[in-house]
Amino acid sequence: MAYNIQNKYLENEVLQADPVKLIRILYRGAIDAVDAARVHLRNGAIRERSRQIGRALAIVHELLRSLDHTRGREISRSLAELYVYMTKRLIEANTLQIDEPLAEVSHLLATLLEAWTSVPAPAVIPEAREAAGCPV
Fold first, then answer.
1. Cα 15 to Cα 22: distance, rounded to the nearest angstrom
2. 33 in Cβ contact with 109 (< 8 Å)
3. What is the C-alpha separation between 98 and 41, in angstroms, rounded?
4. What domains are defined for the chain?
C-alpha cells in the first residue's frame, strides 16, 4: 500500500516537473540506486546489488541521451564524458564486486546534483500554466 502511494507521488511529481526539476529527480534516483547497491554489496546480496547498479546505469544513460550538444556545446560534451566514465565505473563495480567505484560515482552524482540545485527553474508563461491545468 505505501509503495503504491509513494509511486503515485513520484509519478505526480515527475508529470508536473519542469526540466530542471526532472534532472534533479534523475540525479536523486541515481544516487539512491548507487547507495542502495553499496548496502547490498556490503550485505552480500548479489542480485539486489546488480539490480540497483542496473537502475543507476539506466538513469545515467537517460541523462546522457538528454544532453543537447547543439545548445550545450562544451558543457554537454564534458557531461557526456563524465556520464561515460560513470558508466564504466558502475560496470566495474558490478563485475568486480567492489565498493570504491560505487563510492566515486555516488560522490560525482552528488556534486552534480548540488550544482543543479542552484539552477533556477525556468520561467513559465501564465498562459502555458493555465493550458497545463496548473494554478496561476
1. 9
2. no
3. 8
4. 18-115 (1.20.120.340)
In the block, which residue shows the cell 545548445?
71
**What tens digit of pLDDT does each residue of 28-84 get?**
999 999 999 999 999 999 999 999 999 999 999 999 999 999 998 999 999 999 999
SS3 at position 16: coil
- Which value, in Å, is the radius of gyration of the alpha carbons in the chain? 17
Contact between 103 and 115 (Cβ < 8 Å): no
Q: With 0-12 CB in 10 A as exposed, 13-18 as middle and 19+ as buried, what is 101?
A: buried
Q: How far is the C-alpha of 74 from the C-alpha of 80, rounded, in Å?
A: 10
The pTM is what?
Answer: 0.80
Q: For residue 113, which phi and psi values (nearest 5 degrees)?
A: -60, -40
Spatial separation of the C-alpha atoms in residues 92 and 100, rounded to whole Å: 10
